[in-house]
Amino acid sequence: MPRRKHLRKIVEPPRFKSYKPGGAEKSNMDPVELLYEEYEALKLTDYDGLHHHEAGRKMGISRPTFARIYESARKKIAMALVEVREIITVYGNVEFDHHWFQCAECHARFTLQKTLSSEKCPMCSSELIEPIIKKVTPK
Predict the structure, then answer these.
(1) Does domain 98-139 correspond to CATH entry 2.40.128?
(2) What is the pTM of this model?
């Protein structure tokens, strides 16, 4: 029986749903799915400049596990660039520091503070907000 996967801690979800290549002919290939934890690994290492050990500790996982997630993310990004494919973000095996929500109208992602009297999007004031949660796909 395989070991249970530990949830990877991330501060916030990616601020985008997808990246599409511009200036190229439309591709018939499926998009590359970048997991939230892969995005977080890229951000912590390449953007924030943390070493794998520090980044792994921040995500609540071991350095070898972090290295595998990071390597997977790099391969997916390279595949998307070389094959001119769209990149979409997909909920993975993660837990957030706070409860995150997304606006159904403007697609902004945000947390709700306990001091807010009403649950509205801070960008467009829409009341059509939904929690960002793991979407379980039937097998």
Answers:
(1) no
(2) 0.69
Q: What are the helix (H) ranges across the chain?
A: 36-42, 52-59, 63-82
Structure tokens at 25: 């002919």
For the chain, strand residue ranges (E) read 8-10, 18-19, 32-35, 87-90, 94-96, 100-103, 109-111, 129-131
Give the architecture (CATH level 2) of 1-97.
Orthogonal Bundle (1.10)
pLDDT in tens, 89-122: 888 777 766 667 777 887 776 666 543 446 777 7
Q: In whole angstroms, what is the distance from residue 86 CA to residue 12 CA?
A: 22
Residue of 18, 13, 5 whose CA lies nearest to 99: 13
Contact 92/13 with Cβ under 8 angstroms? no
Domain boundaries, the chain: 1-97, 98-139
Start-to-end CA distance of the chain, whole Å, equals: 20
Residue 112 tokens, joined: 């709700």
pLDDT digits (tens, 9 = 90+) for 40-83: 999 999 999 999 999 999 998 999 999 999 999 999 999 999 99
